[in-house]
Amino acid sequence: MEGKTSNEVFNREKAEATVKELRQSFRAGKTKTYEWRAAQLEGIARLIKEKESEITQALRSDLAKPEMESYLHEISLAKSACLFALKNLKKWMKPEKVPAAITTFPSSAQIVSEPLGVVLVISAWNYPFLLSIDPVIGAIVAGNAVVLKPSEIAPATSELFAKILPEYVDSSCIKVVEGGVPETTALLEQKWDKIFYTGNGKVGRIVMAAAAKNLTPVSLELGGKSPVLVDSDVNLKVAVKRIAVGKWGCNNGQACIAPDYIITTKSFAPQLVEALKVTLERFYGKNPLESADLSRIVNLNHFKHLTDMLDEENVSDKIVCGGQTDEKQLKIAPTLLLDVPHDSLIMKNEIFGPLLPIVTVDKLEDSFEIINSKSKPLAAYIFTKNKKLEQEFLSNVSAGGILVNDVALHLANLYLPFGGVGESGIGAYHGKFSFDAFSHKKAVLSRGFAGEAGARYPPYTPEKQWILKGLINGSIVALFLALFKRF
Amino acid sequence: MALITGKKCGDEEMGALGLETEVAEARTTFDSGKTKGFEWRKSQLEALLRLLQEKEEDMLKVLKEDLGKHRVEAYRDEVGALTKSVDNALLNLKKWMAPEKVSLPLVAVPTVAEIVPEPLGVVLVMSSWNFPIGLSLEPMIGAIAAGNAAILKPSELAPATSEFLAVEVPKYLDCEAIKVIQGGPQVAEQLLDLKWDKIFFTGSAQVGRIVMTAAAKHLTPVTLELGGKCPAIFDSLKSSRDQRMAVGRVAGAKWGSCLGQACIGIDYLLVTDEYAPTLIELLKGVIKEFFSNSEHLARIVNKHHFQRLCNLLQDESVAASLVHGGSVNAEELFIEPTILLNPPLDKEIMTEEIFGPLLPIITLKKIEDSIEFLRARPKPLVIYAFTHDEKFKQRIVDDTSSGCVMFNDTLIQYLCDTIPFGGVGQSGFGQYHGKFSFDNFSNRKPVGRRNFLIEFSFRYPPWNEKKLQLLRHIYRFDYIGFVLCFLGLKR
To answer: What positions does the domain Aldehyde dehydrogenase occupy (chain A) (predicted)?
Structure first.
């Protein structure tokens, strides 16, 4: 165990020693076998099963996360990631035979997946269990040794990892390092074969710059302002429920793929607002600050970040629902705002909280300009039955992922890559994409000495050039000549 | 003083500010949606093909001028290879652009999903001097096929080629979206300060670090195609015919491609003490057969690299290990094929990438020792091995790491569109060629669709135990349990 549970500070020397130990374990070949990888995954699956209540409790302590959300969004997703990996591990580890080109005839080719080596996973505070264990599962399944640095902003979960993970996995190859900025900096100074970071763009830049010193590839799972376009032709009751559960049912809006703002037509907005109000009351009652089904804001810092947004001039008067806050309990009620100024804080920065601005336009096609004036988000949503509008949305909006007529669900689908683009990140994972994210795809090409193209070699002649031309362009005649013509 | 001499369609000279304007124009063009359509991409690739065909002689000429490449070598390694790649891209473009349907389990949501590739936006390609046309246009093929606007900065160390590209590319391709900007380190620095949607860099690790650090400021994804010391393991081959063929391939890869200045060229050989003398004799024979006329060999790119290579031989212990060649011609920037036997491993010739026609042969007690030798060193772009021993081959694949492994031949992995081309560790990250190029410059965007027909009430708060139970069943794909629970027949 390292970090704050021991008396020593986790500094550069300790970071170096940790990486050295992992490198030795990796070089010894421990992590490469199917048996080892499967054993680790089985260990993690057991951990999730046996420690479900401890995990739920840690999440409640860190975020006041309702038990349902802990189950739905963290525990069950972690479990399915684990089981999916176990089920497919053998298949993923197999080399992939590919056809070799006529230019290289005769030859055989395959793509072999190999582990990158020793990798670092830095996770976030909002889904502190899932966002730690999910990438670690990917690292393990690809055969790497891994250090996990859980977020210090979710201390109960971080401590839980440090305590129980070593009981279920091979701690000579999988380690947990707790800590904040100094410990993370010490880790980032080391040479890793891959760094996987989940968090915000500011720290993402620091991670990538540190990685650049060692030419270490990175995956950055960041965030952005995920827009929701709502058309008037939808089943409003269902749409609104999906939006609501995607926003406030996901850690009270503190989720990278939670709807950040809504765009709808001026004429439809009143209906939308009414429907949202009704749904919010149904979900959370008349006193949402007292509802047990809402997470609290993670800490005072983020609480202030949100209240600053609400208190801004020309914004506070746009609240049409909610707005109640409780600093002592760090609770903010689901809040709707209508037509805040475009240059307000709440429309410039990622909200990451229970505030939902609604922007109105004359016609929905005008929304693309608004969306594209901001950086590319992790997710973009559209509710519509109009196929043409849907297609325009798809073509015009670039995002990590797009969902039509629902919110957030794509993250649960292990067949879809989950990741950002532009400011929302680099790389993707989930399912086989996790395996790929932590692997090197090594091309292996094998030839014999049967066919020899003398035309390849000097002294060069025009005739050789002619044959090479044909050979490179896949001409059978040239191939024939290349193989049999003697020079 | 920055040297910027790109030519716009209207043949105007660019100034320092012109650089930003050019990039801004590319962005405006991309934002207009022009580069996204199939027709545009197809037209650009076809134009590229015409460029390769119509300007073939000019290309061979500038490659001779910059690097002394014989026209056949230049065709084989650059022009021809590009032609194949463009043909391949044109053939497959529609397929690559098509959304990929994703299979989903029944209860999985969303109900229908696909992965849609979309362009990243405006990309920067920085290429290297040793295959100045090939390494410029090969990534560009990927960028264009994927629907991006692209800026190419060719290496200033191959000036004739850089000028050729700056003049000819705008004549064939859409100069509002595809631009060539010439210049040296200062121009590169200015370009790296701007915000790109992707940077594709081919070159040295040292500059690679600079590129990635600059990219980090904007969270720009990068591909780094770097180098390393690519070894060739030479096992004993039974027949003399095989041996002769293998040695020919080694010689071709060491000296026949840009005089050893290739990232996938052979850097050094690993062979048993016992076999080394035979190998050296065979190599000498092949050198005589292929390279007697130095016109069939390329030249060292410039004085700086020429001097660098000469310096490698200066060290006494290195010079003492010379067994063939060693003569140099400063005026011609030519160094003849040179073989060294067991130069000390701690000298620069064995610690740094050689990138030239000096071939160290390192001998080992037994050939299997080559695996430990390689594991102790940084991961190269490719490991070559000449052997018939299937077990040994498997050990090489399992126990070493490199961008690629090539058995019993050299260099041709570059021509194979079905395998990814790229490094690992110090030799870089990111891959291209064939569809890998297309993917490299794309955002693979998952798109899920739901309808309003099926609705699960237990998705929503307020929460209760029953909803939790239903969800447990769903998540385990336990349909029967789910139905029973739903109907109240199961707790």
So the answer is: 11-444
- Phi, psi values for residue A357, rounded to 5°: -75, 145
What are the pLDDT digits (tens) for A330-364?
Answer: 999 999 999 999 999 999 999 999 999 999 999 99
Q: How far apart are CA B232 and CA B382, in angstroms?
A: 9
Q: Whole-angstrom Cα distance, residue A132 to residue A44?
A: 12
How far CA B191 is from CA of A293, B17, B22, B341, in Å, comes to 50, 11, 11, 44
Q: Is residue B6 pLDDT above 50, yes or no?
A: no
| CB-based contacts of B105, cutoff 8 Å, min separation 6 | B477
pLDDT digit string, tens, across residues B190-233: 999 999 999 999 999 999 999 999 999 999 999 999 999 999 99
Residue A40, Ramachandran bin (φ over 0: left; ψ between -120 and 50: alpha; else beta): alpha
Omega cis (within 30) before A106? yes
Q: Would you please indicate which residues of A are annotated as catalytic (active-site) residues?
A: 221, 256
**pLDDT at res. A391:** 96
Instruction: Check if B224 contacts A (Cβ < 8 Å).
Output: yes
Tokens at residue B150, please?
């692209």
Cross-chain residue pair B102–A79, CB shorter than 8 Å: no
The ipTM value here is: 0.93
d(CA A377, CA A389): 19
Residue B5: predicted pLDDT:
40
Chain A contact present for B402, CB below 8 A: yes
B339 SS3 class: strand
User: pLDDT tens digits, residue range A232-255?
Assistant: 999 999 999 999 999 999 999 999
Structure tokens, A158: 């971080």
Please give the pLDDT value at position B472.
74
Cross-chain Cβ contact A415/B413 below 8 Å? no
**Closest listed residue to residue A239, CA positions, set B455, B106, B107:** B455
Residue B292 structure tokens: 């007697």
Residue A399: CB atoms within 10 A of its CB come to 27
Q: Do A398 and B443 touch (CB under 8 A)?
A: yes
Restricting to B residues 452-481, those with a Cβ less than 8 Å away from any Cβ of A are: 452, 455, 459-463, 467-468, 471-472, 475
* C-alpha triplet A140, A141, A147: angle, nearest 5°: 15
Cα–Cα dist B299/B437, whole Å: 30
Q: Is the dihedral of CA A75, A77, A78, A83 positive or negative?
A: positive
Closest chain B residue to A288 measured between Cα atoms?
Answer: B462
| Region of residue A199 (left: phi > 0; alpha: psi -120 to 50; beta: else) | left
Which candidate, A262, A205, A446, places its Cα nearest to that of B216? A205
Distance from CA of B450 to the nearest CA of A (A): 5
Q: Which residues of B have a catalytic role annotated? A: 225, 263
Checking DSSP bridges between strand B149-153 and strand B178-180, what pairing results, if any? Answer: parallel
Residue type, B149: A
Model confidence pLDDT, tens digit, residues B33-53: 999 999 999 999 999 999 999
B377 touches chain A (CB under 8 A): no
Question: How far is it, in rounded angstroms, from Cα B268 to Cα B414?
Answer: 19
Indicate whether A46 pLDDT > 60: yes
Residue B471 pLDDT grade (very low, low, confident, very high; cuts 50, 70, 90): confident
Please state the separation of Cα B299 from the chain's center in Å.
22
- What does the DSSP 8-state code read for residue B13? B
Distance from CA of A360 to the nearest CA of B (A): 23
